[in-house]
Amino acid sequence: MATITYREALNQALSEEIERDDKVVLMGEEVAQFKGSYKVSEGMLEKFGSDRIIDTPISEAAFSGLAVGAAMMGMRPVVEFMFWSFCYVAFDQIFNNAANVRYMSGGLINVPIVFRGPANGGTNVGATHSHTPENFAANTPGIKVICPATPADAKGMLKSAIRDNDPVCVMENTILYNLQGEVPEEDDFIIPLGKANVVREGSDLSIIAHGKSVHTALEVAQTLDETHKVSAEVVDLRSIRPLDTETILSSVRKTNRVLLVEENKPFCGVDAQIAFLIQDQAFDYLDAPIKRVSAIDAPQAYSKSLENAQIPNHDRVLSKAMELI
Amino acid sequence: MEGLHHDTIVDGEEDDSPAKKQDSPVEEELVGDVRIEDFSEKQINHSLAPEERVNLYEQMVRIRRFEERSLRSYQQGHIGGFLHLYIGQEAVAVGAVSVMGEDDHVITAYRDHGHALAVGMDMDECMAELYGKKTGCSKGKGGSMHFFAPDKNFWGGHGIVGGQTPLGLGIAYALKFNKKAGSCLCFMGDGATNQGPFYESLNLASLWNLPVVYVIENNGYSMGTAEARHSAGEPLARRGDMFDIDWSVSHGHDMYEVRHTINDALERAHNESRPSVLEIVTYRYRGHSVADPDQTYRSKEEIEEYKKSKDPINLYKEKLIAEGHLTEGSALEIDRLAKEEAEASAEFAQASPLPEPTELMDDIYWETDNPASKTSQGTMFFETP
Lengths: 325, 385
Hints:
- The complex is a heterodimer.
- By secondary structure, chain A is of the alpha/beta class.
- Chain A is 38% helix and 18% strand.
- Chain A has eleven helices and 14 strands.
- In chain A, the strands form three sheets. A seven-stranded mixed β-sheet of chain A has the order 3-2-4-5-7-6-12, sandwiched between helices. Chain A has a five-stranded mixed β-sheet with strand order 9-11-10-13-14, with helices on both faces.
- The two termini of chain A are 38 Å apart.
- The model of chain A has no long low-confidence stretch (mean pLDDT 97).
- By secondary structure, chain B is α/β, with parallel strands linked by helices.
- Chain B has one domain: Rossmann fold (3-Layer(aba) Sandwich), CATH 3.40.50.970.
- Chain B is built from 14 helices and ten strands.
- Chain B has helices spanning 5-11, 43-46, 50-75, 90-98, 113-118, 123-130, 165-177, 196-207, 227-230, 255-272, 300-310, 312-323, 328-351, 366-369, and strands spanning 28-31, 34-37, 104-108, 154-157, 183-189, 212-218, 221-222, 225-226, 246-251, 276-281.
- The N and C termini of chain B lie far apart (54 Å).
- Classes of the chains: A alpha/beta, B alpha/beta.
- At the A-B interface, helix 3 and helix 4 of A face strand 4, helix 7, helix 8 and helix 14 of B.
């Protein structure tokens, strides 16, 4: 095991896959000379050259669509969005073209492409730069969506995504880029998509989360244990589509109480689907209604104090957990 | 002709534009009210063997008869949704595809039947797709707007106006990345020239020296909105100029002119890896989709006048007869065979089975279609038949 940052883990995944497969290229705004807006691709231009690490103009619709066209021809492009919020100007290319070409061609054409970048609030940048579109990406059949929360997951899942023959949206988090964690050093470390992770075992309550909310959930679980003698289990979804329904349901059958936590906005958010799943398939195991903490249902606020209140934080999650006990 | 002001551009002051790469006309004649240059002596046409010339005629007739037959099926209720017919524009797809080489590729918008048949797709699979049958080219999942044949370098069939313009760029990019001396012909309508991704694509095409040829099939109308009401600045192809892209305007009713124009652009793509914007002025006889009314934005007389003076199939037939490669009798025989083939395709489509509801779940993810090679875990679908 080596201790590296989430950022370094992404860099390793990209570098290893570019070395492994000559069809893989990384393209996006500032990924080459500038070394990535968040320095994820540091050193890669020098190592792999400008044919593989490609700076694009600020022109998401064109370079996203270009990458889809190249993927249709058999390449494996990785498209970096400086923020996932910017995918909105490339919506047609991702959610019409990448998502539907395989289906509309009766399976004749594959689109092995990765769209990746940060999708999070909490950085004081206002409504236009703080979207978390994992819910509507996952609402699109043909697309896969993952939200790695740790350096190991970032590396292992991004590598899986690049090798996948279907379009995968990788939603990262700028606040996690500096997070350190242990990452296996084995040659070909891979984490399959669609495999949730029980990151803390518990018996009284299941807190199910994804992305940065996993870390909030872990902090709350610690407080519950230390202050209230409540044993909370924390499940990190890791992948939204495909979804590890079995791990979710087995945790619910074990603890009989569920708190869902996500940074998505509540209406039609990812956890709306998870709540439906649990009541549909584990209703008899529930000892209390499913509770949920999401972002407060307003456009993302700029002011730090407002945004801190808006995103699921320790106190909001803790108080909702206490309602369940 | 009122409402066709895009035609006046071709014959107007733009002729001496430095970006226009056409040679001076070898010979001029008047057909209807439009001056036509004679492109038959251009190298790409001069070298055509007699049977190749006749084949181009056959291809156009096949497309027209196929679409007329599909229109009847639509009216009989066998075909649903939209049916955007290409009737009137046939010389553009047939002429363009006829000059393509092995590594040249095609992508187009939703008016795609002509391009599909021109690249060699079978009438049966196309008609069956319109009928929503299992034997259709997309197993009934794509429909009229979404035909694909990657084995014939044909990448669709795209329903969103202008949405295919970045994809064409990507096809050209992949060819260049793989060091192929090929290109991508990216067809679009005049209406698509007002979509943002088109301009973003032009910028990247020129910036990165990509071998993509944007072919604006200007039929004068963006759905029911005439060019004069949808586009500022004429001609539309001049929009390539601001990105330093070679552009030209040419006639789409002249098979030889289309071939010459496209061939020039392909050579530029192959030899210089440079993009082009070609505006090819043409006309559609039917509504935007067949269910749309024509009378709200153009007159019957306008359509009849075009048919009379500039029908691409008639003009080419007259040329071939004059050249001695075709007779009225052999033209009739070609027509009869095309009608038979179209009729047979409708019978094939009618007799073909419908897809089963369980087939809804096929062709979504590569992985779920190839379970033996599956690497992901978990639930992929949340409601299934």
